[in-house]
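Run: sequence + adenosine-5'-triphosphate -> complex structure.
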Amino acid sequence: MGAIGGEELMQWEKTQGAIAHEEKILVSVRLRPLNAKELARNDASDWECINDNTIIFRNSLPERSMFPTAYTFDRVFRYDCSTKHVYEEGAKEVALSVVSGINSSIFAYGQTSSGKTYTMSGITDFTVADIYDYIQRHEERAFVLKFAAMEIYNEAVRDLLSADNTPLRLLDDPERGTIVEKLTEETLRDWSHLQELLSTCEAQRQIGETSLNETSSRSHQILRLTIESSAREFLGKDNSSTLAASVNFVDLAGSERASQALSAGTRLKEGCHINRSLLTLGTVIRKLSKGRNGHIPYRDSKLTRILQSSLGGNARTAIICTMNPARSHVEQSRNTLLFASCAKEVTTNAQVNVVMSDKVLVKHLQRELSRLESELRSPGPTSVTCDSAALLQEKDFQIEKMEKEIKELIRQRDLAQSQFEDLLRVGDDRASKPWAGFDHHPKLQERNAWEGEHSMLESSGVADTHCLDVGVRTFRTSQYSCSHSESNSDDHYLQLPENYEDNSLSDGTSSRLSIRIPKFVGPDTCQGWEKITQGTGKKFEDICKEVRCVEIEESSMNGKVKSDALIPVESEEMLALKVAGNEDATDQNFVPSLLKGDKELNHTHADFPYGAWEQKIQDVQTTINCLINPYPDESSPCPPTADISSSRSLKLMRSRSCRETLMTSSLSPWFENGEQNARTPPNGFEKDFLGRPEGFQRKLSVLNYGVNIGRLSRKDSQASIGSDSIDELKAQNIKTSANEDVTSIRSFVAGLKEMVKLQYEEKLVDGPVQETEPRADESGKNAKDVGLDPMQDALESPSNWPLEFKRQQREIIELWHACNVSLVHRTYFFLLFKGDPKDSIYMEVELRRLSFLKDTFSQGNQAVEDGRTLTPASSMRDLRREREVLSKQMLKRFSEEQRKSLYQKWGIGLDTKQRRLQLAHRLWNDTEDTDHIMESAAIVAKLVGFLEPGQALKEMFGLSFTPRPTNRRSYSWKHSMSSLL
Ligand SMILES: Nc1ncnc2c1ncn2[C@@H]1O[C@H](COP(=O)(O)OP(=O)(O)OP(=O)(O)O)[C@@H](O)[C@H]1O
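>> structure
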């Protein structure tokens, strides 16, 4: 590596793009030899490394025949491999990145006595030796090495270089991430100094005897070596720059279950704590292995907090999983391999860390600026122009094609709509005159013969049904029987073959419509189905599958919301009957026509494709807009693709993960643009959804992090916050983040409420069914499954709620701290939401909002609210100002005596300066000490004149929201909204 500075800086700039990259964690497995005890008790090894990458389980036990037997990793090391070899192949490259300014971490993971410490101490020694060797060979650079060591024992962080056992606190630094406060960092003199320090650590580390290891490491140990280097020729000059990175050597405590290796008392307690950290580590790795979606619970343990950047962040990481080969430990070994299998899917994104002097930075930026300017000036070589022409032509072609597609889709939609309306009319008729409407429907003339029979069956109360499930891709036979003697207990369902679905939806949206067919299906009907299957080239047995009746898959919600809101339940019944009529033994034409891809019929019956088409039309239109205007400006009607999907997810309002899409959409300028909203063609749901408050779409676009600050008049908040105190804050020209946060919660809750409202609406529509059919459970399940009904969860399982509340409260407090949330906001929230099950929705909202904010910050992004950009730095600034204001309030709100006693209580010397400010800076500064938190809240409450929590104040954080209105039909969302706004 060359020196960095001057010309070499340019060199570095060129290479840095290549250096910064995503890569998977390097995962290897090391098998240790059987030890004397294991050999003595003949505890054979069933594991074998069959090559450099694969380890297999030689399975001699029949009860284990279900388990996988082969596992593949970047490297596997046999029991006779030396640690040097393990280092060379499994850690060296990653560890030595540190000398190039890239953070790295090497972990040892495995059960107790599997060889973690044995492996890791060897790897640490070899790395250090190589680093010193490197330093010797690069005299042109000046190196500074620093060493720190800590252990996490019983969830307390201890400094291994200090005799003081006091647990160290973790602090969140917006730039550096989690830092360990007051951790000793020794600047190394030479190699022998490091050896000395390593021995100190070894002596300090918590060792205990377990049944499996006489000298078991009971803690997680992290040794951190930081290397800074600069080119000597630039040393001391103001154009120097420094590479700075750390390598962590992490020797984890045993991953076994407490019961296995530990007995009782201290060891058992250790086991719980060790397992909490390892459990979180496992969860973090598992979640990361599935991609970086959703919340990664780094903050659930100290270990994962400290090592956050090594787990999916700015670091290269290698994990060596050590295994005890003995048969008696096969379960633990398997767990280790499962962990390793997840870990190998995790990617990190390491970058070179350069600390530039101001002058170098300016130079670098100037160069970048001139490069961009020159790019702007020169339009590029002619080949580019040719390419653009070809590209334009291609896009024209696409536009033409899509316009045709739109026309066709509109035609299909109109057709579907008119048939759909026919059906509704029929439904209305039927409400007053059962069956009457069928006679008039063009497709249902044939059903008369069947009608009488069905009426009889229905009146005799045995009208059982089969369901025809349209558009599902899989087929099973076992549940379907063609015999006459079917039981009357269950509905049966038939599904159409795959190629049929393609007729209805080409965008792969999985639509599902279940249509009821009376259950007295006779042999002729079976023949009909056989014909169908022959016609589609599939065996009859392959097309039958049992699915739930009258179910519409969640993914088809775009169309469903509208349709559900419109179709009375009776109409669904009629759909069933209508199909049933054509399913009559005397008429086999109807169903085959469906399978032939009779679109008209399909559209007539499937309310989903109607909505889906609208959505599709909208999508295509949007795509065309994009094609027409590929470089949109602010007023363009074309949102970026991501936003199209976001807005769709937003409408679906289903899963927890919708948080991310909601959040992302909020940052999109496209949704902020009123003109855009006006021009975007409405889809079925938006257009027809009656209960949506005006401007809702706009609100949703900012759900996450409150935008409508302007909309919340001061009156709103004054209603419950002591008005004079707010005035005081205002009078000092401080736009506290508290006000904004409260507002942001309001808008986010409004959005969330809207989602819940949609659920209620669905359930209202489903109401009668709920009373008579098991379908109600399904609706309930849907809501719960997607985590949008936390209040219901809390009310349904009150015994879990207090614990869950505590957990969420803890998480929220930590997130407040991490995001520099206003202290006034924290105080209100903390004092208002004390664990009532009805509070769960507010907790959920707050958690989502904060998680989003934290994720945004940690990805280096900015949150945008009403044109105002929020960054870690700006929120920190706001918080600092707020503390200043609060410190001033202390003069007004506390007597001198009260202040004195507060200073004493909070450890502030009475002879020190700026005592009020000191106190203000201590408020809400500890996220773990409950007393601290309660006292902070009490002080802030007093300072802002917050006296009695009440419902009105709660409503600042959203609507007062009862889980289930007693009279569901009378539940009025609009009413609730207007009471809020
Ligand atoms: N590859 C190996 N070759 C020879 N001996 C080994 C090997 N790995 C581990 N051992 C021996 O096995 C014993 C346990 O190893 P070690 O203490 O490293 O396990 P550990 O996984 O760190 O256990 P704990 O989690 O309880 O601290 C030690 O006596 C060690 O010398």
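>> summary
The radius of gyration is 33 Å. The chain has three domains: 21-349, 419-601, 632-959.
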